[in-house]
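Example 3.2
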Amino acid sequence: MISHTRHSVTAEALPHLFRPEEVAKALGCSEWWVKEQARRRRIPFTRAGGAYRFTADHVAEIVRAFEERPVRTAEPTPADRGAFVRPRRSPEPAAEPVRLRARRPRRALPRQSPAA
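Structure, written as tokens:
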């Protein structure tokens, strides 16, 4: 009889695989979004038994992939200056207002008889 102890895999050796609904709950998004991103190959995943599964490393990589970093600018932002100041417009001479005219409604137009 052959012993399988040499080839057996213990539960401690395998990574825990999370289902899409578990990942969605952890990320605060929908299960549909997680599956759609995996389907479009935008996030890492493992396909076990035809289903999407995620390791803890996959989830950490997803968080890093969608992380937003602050943008550094040279000029001060309105928050740095205190109150927001509206830019001044140069005074322009008052122009003649444009007069708009409405078109006549279609039902008021005379009907054309179809050419025979």
